Prior knowledge:
The complex is a heterodimer. By secondary structure, chain A is mainly α.
Amino acid sequence: MRRALPPGTPRIAIAIVFLLLLVAPPFFSSFLLALLTQAVIYAILAMSLDIILGYIGLASLGHAAYLGVGAYSVGILATRHGAGFWVTLAVGVLLATAVAAVFGLVALRATGVYFLMITLALGMVVWGLAHRWVSMTQGDNGISSVPRPDLGLPWSFAAAVPFYYLAFAGFLLAFWFLRVIVRSPFGQSLVGIRESESRMRTLGYHVWLHKYIGFMIAGGVGGFAGVLWAYYNGFVSPADLELATSVEILLMVALGGRGTLLGPALGATLIVLLKNLVSVYTHRWLLILGGVYIGTIVYAPEGIVGALRQWTKLKGERAWAGK
Amino acid sequence: MGRKMIVSVLAALVLVAMWEPGQAWAQKEPIKIGFLAPMTGGAAQVGKDMVNGISMWLEENGNQIAGRKVELIVEDTQGQPNIALTKLRKLVESDKVHVLSGGLFAHVGYALAPKVDEYKIPMLYPVMAADDLTQRKPAKWVVRNGWTSSQPSHPFGEWVVKTLGYKRVVTIGIDYAFGWEVVGGFQKSFEEAGGQVIQKLWPPLGTTDFAPYLSQIRRDADAVFALMVAASSLRFPKQYQDAGLKARLPLLGGGTTFDEFVLPSLGDEAIGGISPLMYSAALDTPVNRRFVKDYRAKYGKVPSYYSEVCYTTGRWINDAAKAIGGDLENREKFLAALRKVEVPDAPRGPVKLDAYGNPIQNIYIRKVEKKDGELWNTVIHTFPGVSQFWKYKAEEFLKQPVYDRNFPPCKHC
């Protein structure tokens, strides 16, 4: 039992999960496939929030806004102007980045609970806009009949399996992109700012600009998730932008482990599956979800991936001591 | 240990992958009805009334339709459109249901309709009342056996002028599509009959304190028309009375303002409230008396309109299935049969569909009264056989935009 984990085990485990996500889905039941598609889209969203929460070190309660901006870009452009996938994708991501650029100017002046409250208010502004700007968003009724994208490829994304692969490709792209960012000197300095803002400032880093750029990247990737979400559901409504969504994304990141990228993706998958599978069996599913949150906070405050990392590290040290 | 963990993760994934429910129904297999309703969240009580309604019909009929056993599968929408879409996928793709029903909020109805058309599985909408679902944006596979939001409002507006003699009315409606349509329908026929809406107030969905709105109400009106839903129906009448308005301005309302769903929780402040709807638990017909009595015996409360429409939905599916000899697998035929159903003796009265797929049914003007210590919606007038267009010509009616916050415009404000 005291055996150390062979080196590289986590990496092998991750590789196997990725491989399974690539190979297995065509054999899943279509309902499970639909949930998995939801999960990878939410994983993109949770990873983007992780840039703010895990790397900049600020808790934002307005992340649903970027999902909304991306989703409404698709809803409006695809149904009213017949725009194709690439156009809606570009507009959705750029618009979400632009919104983040404006929100960042306002929100990044504050930290801690004040940042939380400002982002919450800004998120509600976008929700209010979706709710009230009826001529543009069709208000409370939402925009329905958003067609699935046509990429000019020989297969149709209306079917569940191809669309899953599209979403999964989006997930891989987002994961790769964010990984490059957090591993770059820029990402490292974000971590530095998270740990000690004053020290980084003394060292001559432009702290605010770093945070601001990180915030915009998070917004843009959030918008990307929104684009996929709108195509997946075929429907956009203010319900997607509610505070509850922002809270849920935050919980996904906390559950999986902030500052780990893959953790939030895992958290998103778990919550999507729990929410939809458990509620099939019991109407008391909220109790179970609540139990999971409390369990995480008490036993794994660094989230699942954080706890796993600590555990493997501990095992390694013990084995080392044994030798 | 590490290898063990990987193995168990693998095993779990394989198990999940194999989790594929049975396929290929034979003729004798049970009829599966997929039912969507909010079972958690703010509207859970309404969801319960809905499920009670359809369950009661099924139990009364031995869980049999056209000689086949019936399986009712209830899924929780949490009142959210995206969850409803996911659950719809589950019902169709995993459970392979033959027919769908349920749903509460209008935006859920709009979200589901295109998906239902894509699946080509008939879905009955007993509750979701958004006007355009059977007017400007109809869906082929959606059969609405409930109502449109503005349907009861049309005859009511004219009746208020002609019978009650009120000429100047202030409207206060919850600010979303359902509210706009109920208030809009009222305003249209009320003003055409010579009345004037002199002020329109729109508190947002979820408002609990109406004081800021009540203090704005113009005191030179003859009456107030209020459209409340769910929790706001619970609070509004009391606050209306506390503001000293009840004694000065009679309170009219949309059907949901004084629904049976809230009446047991209201006190004397609700007495005298007048509202139109296609159902009242106090409706004095043998069918309804029996329905109310049995429902009370079973669930311990008076049925609301939500219960009645879902109860009748059970019957609706049954009648259509019988007409085609229980062959629900032939979906086109089943859909056609669903559209042809006529229920001459539902608890709410006779119901059949118009050419646009919305029920033609009686609209009752109801007044809240106290009988044996309980509040009831006494029926004081009946408009027989009202369609969603009432006295208007369908083609002309459809030329006007769907009712919203600013349509009809407030000319007399």
